[in-house]
Amino acid sequence: MSEQVLPFYLVCDESASMDGEPLDAINNELPKIHQEIASNPIVADKARFSMVGFSDTAEVLLPLTDLGDIDSLPMLSSRGLTSYGAAFSLLRQAITTDIAELKQAGHTPFRPTVFFLTDGQPNDYGWEDAYGELVSPNFTARPHILAFGFGDVEHQTLTRIATFRAFVAQTGVSPAQALSEFARQLTKSIVRSATLSASNPANAPQLVLPHENVPGFTVLAADPV
């Protein structure tokens, strides 16, 4: 029997500017995400989760997997400059492979959702080309992208990346506080999407239901893609 699954991707900036509190905060919150998602029976049957870390290069830290099947999540570490092009190129490749494998296994994948987290500005020119390929209508598995930024993130770039909604941490909010709310946002989005898809499967491939207001963050208007 075909099973509907939710592919979610956490794409995180591992550049040098993230060293210290930002990455420490993320690494501290990831086990909470894992525990909450994997322990929810509604979500455990549907959610598939992947992690991508990026700087000068990008790597899949956790291939798309059922969180209930793993004991711990990988740790992020600071390395290199902020390079968005490598992240978007790798993400497109990963999503292409993941969706093909899910379909081959007889599953019905929902439209992928990406949580893109960064505190910097891209140091690479031409990253827009890789981004354009990722969100192009010609890419049948193109994802929804929610962009979360804090610190010195460039707001204009953040809104260009977000295809659905962009969030920027408010002044005076520490990375730990902001990322704690981000973890709750991620978990709630997966729970809500999985729950509603069970009652309305016809709309499942398009479902992505983040909260409009995330404590500690200001919502920015996403540019149309």
From TrEMBL:
InterPro entries in the record: VWF_A, vWFA_dom_sf
All residue ranges annotated as the VWFA domain in the record: 7-186
Signal peptide: none
Protein origin, superkingdom: Bacteria
Stated name of the protein: VWFA domain-containing protein
